[in-house]
Write a structure and sequence with these properties.
The chain is mainly α. The chain contains 3 helices and no strands. The chain has one domain. Helix 2 crosses helix 3. The protein starts with 10 loop residues before the first helix and ends in a 6-residue tail after the last helix. This is Osmoprotectant transport system permease protein.
Length: 106
């Protein structure tokens, strides 16, 4: 019996994993802000439903993107994951530019 042949990494598969990783990091940052908000009291019963809605939507994007990829709809999975990945990547690039080249705000 021959060993299974590994398939080469295609650009679409690489784009899926990159967008999934970035979307997962955005979700992780949102959870971090939620936990810090619970600790300092800024997340209260007044805005708890808003926080749960945001966290549920972020988790749903990850879940739906992963399920679409498992069912062979990688292009659609990338589009769903881009909802979190593109703004997260743009904000990360903006933060990196602000760190490397601090602006003069006056």
């Amino acid at each position: 019996m021959n060993p299974p042949v590994s398939t080469p990494t295609t650009p679409r598969r690489l784009l899926y994993w990159a967008s999934f990783t970035i979307a997962a990091l955005v979700n992780l940052f949102a959870m971090g802000f939620f936990i810090v908000g619970l600790a300092d009291g800024s997340v209260s019963s007044f805005n708890m439903t808003l926080w749960f809605s945001i966290l549920a939507a972020a988790a749903a994007v990850l879940f739906v993107g992963h399920r679409l990829h498992l069912h062979g709809r990688t292009g659609l999975a990338i589009a769903v994951l881009a909802i979190l990945a593109v703004p997260g990547l743009l904000y990360g690039l903006f933060a990196l530019i602000m760190i490397v080249n601090p602006p003069r705000w006056n």
